[in-house]
Amino acid sequence: MKTNILFWTSALILAMAGLSSCSSDDDDETVIDYRLIDNDPEVLGGVVYEGWDKPDIYISNPLAAFFNEELHNPYWDDKGNEHKTFFEKGEYNDEKCLMINSQKEFQNAYMGTKKLPDVDFGKYTLLIGKTWGNDSSYRLDNIVLTDKDGHYHLEAQLLHYVDRASTAAILKIFYWRLYPKLKSKSIVISRTVKDIKEK
């Protein structure tokens, strides 16, 4: 699995106990755009592409290191034991996200066994999500979060590199973002894809 500084995703209402949910719609807006993560000390985030080897680098931030290891679908070890983290198995094209505003909500969302890193939820909101690409030529380019009074609208912007050789398998893409504190309300997700030609 690979961590990059980028982000996220299509229409569905997901209800979870104790957590705000994600769904689907459109009206008018105040834009909260945190696209340049590494240039903004107030926002931290990453993306994990399932099936890629972990990068041979040391990740000093405990939250980033945790998600690099734990943000994926359920998997089975060589003894046949199932390991869950944040998402159950589902349809490959399920768009899902979690909005987490407390350490208790973080613990309730996590189905794994590792110790959770500390997050200052007095100052921050954690978003954890899942999207997909048709194959390995897709990348998550950006996420734009817009406050629309009654809900947030989240646009996951994917790039499709049409000239690149790719595997035929669906690419599962997971992402996380740590925003300055957001109000707990539903999130409507939309997913867009832009074709990129390199030749």
Quick take:
Helices cover 8% and strands 40% of the residues.
Verbal overview:
The protein has 199 residues and is mostly beta strands. It has two helices and 13 strands. The chain has helices at 62-70, 103-109, and strands at 2-4, 14-16, 19-23, 30-32, 44-49, 75-76, 82-83, 96-100, 124-133, 138-147, 152-161, 171-180, 187-196. Strands 2-3-13-11-10-4 form a six-stranded mixed β-sheet, with no helix packed on it. It has a five-stranded antiparallel β-sheet with strand order 1-5-12-9-8. A two-stranded antiparallel sheet has the order 6-7. 30% of the residues are buried.
State the strand order across the main sheet.
2-3-13-11-10-4
* Uncertain runs: 1-21, 23-40, 53-57
SS field, number of helical segments: 2
Beta fraction of the residues?
A: 35-45%
Computed over alpha carbons, the radius of gyration is: 16 Å
Structural class: mainly beta
- N→C terminal distance: 28 Å
Order of helices and strands: EEEEEHEEEHEEEEE
Relative helix content: under 10%
Average pLDDT taken over every residue: 74
The overall strand count is: 13
Q: What is the topology?
A:
Layout: E1 2-4, E2 14-16, E3 19-23, E4 30-32, E5 44-49, H1 62-70, E6 75-76, E7 82-83, E8 96-100, H2 103-109, E9 124-133, E10 138-147, E11 152-161, E12 171-180, E13 187-196
Parallel strand pairs: 3-13, 11-13
Antiparallel strand pairs: 1-5, 2-3, 4-10, 5-12, 6-7, 8-9, 9-12, 10-11
Provide keyphrases for this structure:
199 residues, mainly beta, 6-stranded mixed beta sheet, 5-stranded antiparallel beta sheet, 2 helices, 13 strands, 8% helix, globular
